[in-house]
Design a protein that fits this description.
12 strands, 16 helices, globular, 39% helix, 473 residues, six-stranded antiparallel sheet
Length: 473
C-alpha cells in the first residue's frame, strides 16, 4: 500500500505517566464513509483506495510512524471534580506538520477501550460520529477555531446503547493538540510538580513559544477562550458540555457531544440531555469559561516562585476576563448588525434586539441574516417588535462605510440545524449518505446565499423540533 502519513511525534517523548501506549481494537468489516481529501492535503497525507483508508482510519492497521496512545487527564464534569479521566474511547495516532508549519494531532475516536474507559466499551455509534464530522467542519467554515474531521469509517459491528444495537463507527479527528485544562488538573491534583512543569514546558513550546512564565500562559489561554466563546455566541452555538476536560489549551472548540445551534432564540436554551440544571445553557457559557480559567489558574500556582503573589496576579487575570469577553462579544455582535467598530450604545442596540427576539420567538440565524434582505421582521410573531427597533438601527448604519459587507461576512445563511442533522443520521443508519454529503457541501460555504439550498435555512416545524442532544459515549 502506497499510503503515507508524515508523522513527527512529540507527545510520546513526555514521561510515560502522561499516557498509555496501545493500539486500537480491530473491527470486523471496516468501510470508509468519507475521507476529507482537502484537509489531508493540508496535512501532507497521501491519498489511497477507500479500502486501505478504511483499515487505517478504523484502527485495523497502524500506519508507519504512528505511536498510538491514550492520553490521561482529569476534569470538572458539571462542577464535580474527577481526578482521573482520560481518553476512554480515543487514541492519538501521532502528529504531523501541516503545510503552514503547524503541528497537528491525528486521533481516532471510537477505537475501543483503554485503561481510562471507566467500564465503557470505548466505541462510538454512527450518529455522534457524523454529527461531529458535520458540525466541526461547519464551525471551521464559519471561521471559528475548531478541531477538524479527517475521516469517518464504519466498523461493521453493532454498538449497544439505550436504543439497542446501533451501527458502530470511528471518527478521525485533527486538532492543534488535545491538551486540556484537565490535563493540567491531573498533575496538579497529584502534586506532581515535575509532571506539571514538563506539561507547562511542552505546552509553551507547542502553542505559545513567546510565553515567558505561567502567568503569561494563563493570559494567553484566557484571551483565546474569550474570543472563542464570544464567537460561539455570535453564531448561536451551544457546546453543551463545557467541562474542564473539554476546554482546549489551544483555544479550539473540542468534543462535539451534546452540542447544537439554536433555532428560536432564547438566552437560556439548553439541548444537552444531561444538563438538567442548565449549567451550560447558551447564555451561561460566558460565565462557565471564566470558571474554567480559574481552575487552570489554580493548577499553575505551584509553578510560580512566590505562590501568594501568584494567587493575587492570577485572580486579577481571571477577574478581568468578563470584560474581555464583553469586548469580543461587542465586536462580534456589532458586526452582525453592520457596525465595524461598535461602541457601548451599539451594544445596547444589540441587546435590545436580542430581548425582542426572545419575546418574539424569532429564529436567531434567520433574523440576523434577514437584516440584509429585509426579511428579519418576518421572523417575529409580532412584527411590530422589529418595526419599532428598525428605525434607530437604520439611522446608525447610515453612518457606516459598508454595513452590508460587514453583515454578510458576520451572519451565516446556513448553520447545521438540529433537525437536519437528525434527518441525516436517520438516513445514514439506513445506509443513505446523500443528506450527509449535501450538508457538508452547503455548510462549507455558510455565508453564501445558495438559493438551491433554501430548504436548509428553514427552522424546524413543531414535529421536527429536536429538544435533546446526547453525549454519544
Amino acid at each position: 500500500m502506497t499510503f503515507e502519513i508524515p508523522f513527527q511525534n512529540s507527545y510520546v517523548q513526555l514521561p510515560e505517566r502522561f499516557y498509555t501506549r496501545q493500539t486500537a481494537m480491530p473491527v470486523r468489516a471496516p468501510r470508509l464513509i468519507r475521507f476529507n481529501r482537502e484537509l489531508a492535503a493540508e496535512l501532507g497525507i497521501s491519498d489511497a483506495p477507500d479500502a486501505d483508508l478504511a483499515r487505517i482510519f478504523s484502527g485495523n492497521e497502524v500506519p508507519e510512524g504512528a505511536t498510538p496512545l491514550a492520553q490521561v487527564y482529569a476534569g470538572h464534569q458539571f462542577g464535580g471534580f474527577s481526578p482521573q479521566l482520560g481518553d476512554g474511547r480515543a487514541l492519538l495516532l501521532g502528529e504531523v506538520i501541516n503545510r503552514n508549519g503547524h503541528r497537528r494531532d491525528i486521533q481516532l475516536k471510537g477505537s475501543g477501550p483503554t485503561p481510562y474507559s471507566r467500564m465503557g466499551d470505548g466505541r462510538a455509534w454512527l450518529g455522534p460520529v457524523l454529527r461531529e464530522y458535520v458540525v466541526s467542519e461547519a464551525m471551521h467554515a464559519l471561521g471559528l477555531p475548531t478541531t477538524r474531521a479527517l475521516a469517518a469509517s464504519l466498523t461493521g459491528e453493532p454498538v449497544y446503547r439505550e436504543a439497542g444495537g446501533l451501527p458502530g463507527a470511528v471518527l478521525t479527528r485533527v486538532a492543534a493538540s488535545h491538551l486540556r485544562v484537565g490535563t493540567f488538573q491531573y498533575f496538579a491534583a497529584r502534586r506532581d510538580i515535575e509532571g506539571l512543569r514538563a506539561l507547562y514546558d511542552y505546552t509553551v513550546a507547542r502553542h505559545y513559544p513567546h510565553v515567558e512564565n505561567p502567568a503569561h500562559l494563563l493570559a494567553e489561554v484566557i484571551r483565546g477562550q474569550a474570543r472563542l466563546v464570544a464567537g460561539w455566541l455570535s453564531v448561536g452555538f451551544i457546546h453543551g458540555v463545557m467541562n474542564t476536560d473539554n476546554t482546549a489549551i489551544s483555544g479550539e472548540t473540542i468534543d462535539y457531544g451534546p452540542c447544537a445551534f439554536m433555532d428560536t432564540y432564547h438566552p437560556q436554551t439548553v439541548f444537552s440531555s444531561i444538563d438538567t440544571r442548565g449549567r451550560y445553557a447558551y447564555d451561561n457559557q460566558a460565565h462557565v469559561i471564566v470558571w474554567n480559567m480559574a481552575q487552570l489558574a489554580t493548577t499553575l500556582v505551584p509553578l510560580m516562585p512566590d505562590q501568594d503573589e501568584a494567587i493575587t496576579d492570577f485572580t486579577a487575570l481571571v477577574h478581568a476576563m468578563p470584560d474581555q469577553i464583553e469586548v469580543e462579544w461587542r465586536r462580534a455582535f456589532g458586526r452582525k448588525i453592520g457596525i465595524a467598530k461598535p461602541n457601548a450604545q451599539d451594544a445596547e442596540m444589540v441587546a435590545d434586539l436580542l430581548a425582542r427576539m426572545t419575546e418574539g420567538h424569532a429564529d436567531f440565524t434567520n433574523t440576523f441574516r434577514g437584516l440584509l434582505d429585509g426579511t428579519a421582521r418576518d421572523q417575529f410573531l409580532d412584527r411590530e417588535m422589529f418595526d419599532t427597533w428598525e428605525p434607530a438601527w437604520r439611522a446608525r448604519i447610515a453612518r457606516e462605510e459598508d454595513p452590508e459587507h460587514v453583515m454578510r461576512t458576520a451572519n451565516p445563511a446556513f448553520i447545521p440545524r438540529n433537525h437536519r442533522i437528525e434527518q441525516m443520521i436517520e438516513a445514514a443508519v439506513a445506509d443513505d449518505y446523500a443528506r450527509f454529503e449535501r450538508l457538508l457541501q452547503v455548510l462549507a460555504h455558510p455565508y453564501e446565499d445558495q438559493p438551491e439550498a433554501a430548504d436548509l435555512k428553514r427552522p424546524p416545524t413543531a414535529a421536527e423540533v429536536v429538544e435533546n442532544t446526547f453525549c454519544g459515549t
